[in-house]
Amino acid sequence: MPNPFCHIELNTTDLDKAKSFYGDLFDWNLQDMPMPGGTYTLIDAGSGDGPGCGGGMMSHPVEGVPSHWLSYILVDDLDETVKKAESLGAKVACPRMEVPEMGWFAVLQGPTGEHFAVWESAKKG
Questions:
Q1: Could you give the CA distance from residue 48 to residue 50 in angstroms, rounded to a whole number?
Q2: Which of 82, 89, 92, 102 is 20 to 30 Å apart from 113, CA to CA?
Q3: What's the rounded Cα separation, in Å, for the pair 64 and 69?
Q4: Of 44, 70, 96, which residue sits at a domain end?
Q5: Bridge partners, residue 113, by sequence
Q6: Contact (Cβ atoms closer than 8 angstroms) between residue 31 and residue 42
């Protein structure tokens, strides 16, 4: 399938509470990693693909926005996808950002108000 969902991330107002709840509820293995401005928690949901295969959790980067899950969609060319999305009525909520040695993402708002992220992996193929 072209452009599959590739990652899901919880942006939460209470990271410790979320880690306790989801870790206990689903028996997920959670691994904290330092990141600028805080901690990113990788979710290993047991699929065998290694840490982060299920997604991640972090303290919400935008003050006043409620906790929510954000889905990431894999694309071949982030910049072209963002341009095409804008031409179809999307707005850029967070412009291109790099995750060192992993790839790049942008967060978009679709024409009906929903938010989603697009991800271009640094590792091709």
A1: 6
A2: 102
A3: 15
A4: 70
A5: none
A6: yes
Question: Element (H or E) spanning 82, and its range?
Answer: helix 78-87
CATH at residue 90: 3.10.180.10
Percent of the chain with pLDDT over 70: 92
**């997920």: which residue's tokens?**
28
Q: Locate 51 and state its tokens.
A: 């840490």
- Write down the pTM of the prediction: 0.86
Of 39, 70, 101, the position where a domain reaches its end is 70
Residues 30-50 have pLDDT tens digits of 999 998 889 999 998 766 554
Could you give the number of structural domains in the chain? Answer: 2
65 and 79 together in one domain: no
Q: Are residues 54 and 105 in the same domain?
A: no
Q: Strand (E) positions, 13-121?
A: 29-35, 38-44, 55-59, 68-74, 91-99, 103-109, 115-121
DSSP 3-state of 100:
coil
16, 20, 35 from 45: Cα distances, Å: 18, 15, 21
Q: Can you read off the two tokens belonging to residue 93?
A: 């909520």
pLDDT over 80 (residue 98):
yes
